[in-house]
Amino acid sequence: MEGALSFQLDVPFPSHLEAQIAHNSLAPDREPRKGGISKTLLVTDNILHVQWKAAEARILRVSINSFLDNLSLVLQTIDRFGPALERP
């Protein structure tokens, strides 16, 4: 997307496993609108990196707000069920 708006969010987690759980929970959510926006998720160490590119500010804002709502639910779920156990 040439001339696109972009936004990056880095979300730290207590562990790599929790960051991966969040990634796996949020990655399947594709943008409902075909074209005009793209979102990529990547985990490095204990950080979930999310990057958006959009042609319009309104589309970018809606996508980020939706993602933050879903991220909040994932964080509440992780918190509710306790810290993840690392496997040996």
Features:
elongated; three-stranded antiparallel sheet; alpha+beta; 88 residues; 40% helix
What features would you describe in this structure?
With 88 residues, the chain is an alpha+beta fold. It has 2 helices and 3 strands; from the N terminus they run βαββα. The protein has helices at 16-26, 57-80, and strands spanning 5-12, 37-44, 47-54. The protein has a 3-stranded antiparallel beta sheet. Strand 2 (37-44) and strand 3 (47-54) form a beta hairpin. Helix 1 crosses helix 2 (57-80). The longest helix has 24 residues, at 57-80. The termini are far apart. The mean pLDDT is 87.
Shape: elongated
Residue-averaged pLDDT = 87
End-to-end separation in angstroms reads 43 Å
Strand content: 25-35%
Number of helices: 2
User: SSE order in H/E notation?
Assistant: EHEEH
Poorly predicted runs of 5 or more residues: none
Write a brief caption for the model.
The chain is α+β, with helices and mostly antiparallel strands. It contains two helices and three strands; from the N terminus they run βαββα.
Q: Any chance you could write out the topology, listing elements then pairs?
A:
Blueprint: E1 5-12, H1 16-26, E2 37-44, E3 47-54, H2 57-80
Antiparallel strand pairs: 1-3, 2-3
